[in-house]
UniProtKB/TrEMBL annotation:
<protein>
    <submittedName>
        <fullName>Similar to universal stress protein, UspA family</fullName>
    </submittedName>
</protein>
<dbReference type="InterPro" id="IPR014729">
    <property type="entry name" value="Rossmann-like_a/b/a_fold"/>
</dbReference>
<dbReference type="InterPro" id="IPR006016">
    <property type="entry name" value="UspA"/>
</dbReference>
<dbReference type="Pfam" id="PF00582">
    <property type="entry name" value="Usp"/>
</dbReference>
<feature type="domain" description="UspA">
    <location>
        <begin position="16"/>
        <end position="155"/>
    </location>
</feature>
Length: 155
């Protein structure tokens, strides 16, 4: 039996270059925790941060989805909330913040559309804090499984 050689491991510092925080407009508790962590990381590393929120079209009934006024109003509400998150991040000290609004299934839209365009090397999301079938938090496992970048789930 041969003697096992010690592992030759050198610890090096790891720095992210750009992060994306997924905000769930329907779950402010998990979003707030994830947002606080994202702002801390972005400020500490002095890196750009994207804030994404998705208009979940599956949450609309057939009559709402066919009414342009209802969809436009919901889109405006989410955009207004994104603006508040951008302002708060800037006040905290994050230098570069980009609001991003998508539509559809959150996990899929973030992985297939938002990440390829924004190109973050870290995605941060919350985990649901209240029962519902379609929250960003419920898509955390989807993001973890399919995102090409690192994913941090904040509880």
């Amino acid at each position: 039996m041969t003697e096992k050689q010690p592992l030759n491991i050198e610890v090096t510092s790891m720095h992210y270059q750009k992060l994306l925080i997924a905000i769930d407009d329907d779950d402010p508790t998990s979003s707030k925790r994830a947002f606080n962590y994202a702002c801390t990381v972005a400020k500490m590393y002095q890196i750009p941060m994207g804030i994404v929120s998705i208009l979940e079209t599956s949450d609309l009934n057939i009559y709402q989805s066919l009414s342009p006024n209802v969809v436009a109003k919901r889109r405006e509400e989410i955009a207004a909330d994104l603006d508040i998150f951008v302002q708060k991040a800037q006040e905290f000290g994050v230098q570069e913040v980009t609001p991003i609004l998508g539509e559809g299934n959150p996990g899929h839209v973030i992985v297939e559309e938002i990440i390829p365009e924004f190109k973050p090397d870290l995605v941060i999301c919350g985990s649901k804090t209240k029962p519902s079938k379609h929250l960003i938090g419920t898509h955390a496992s989807y993001l973890s499984k399919y995102a090409p970048s690192s994913v941090m789930v904040v509880r």
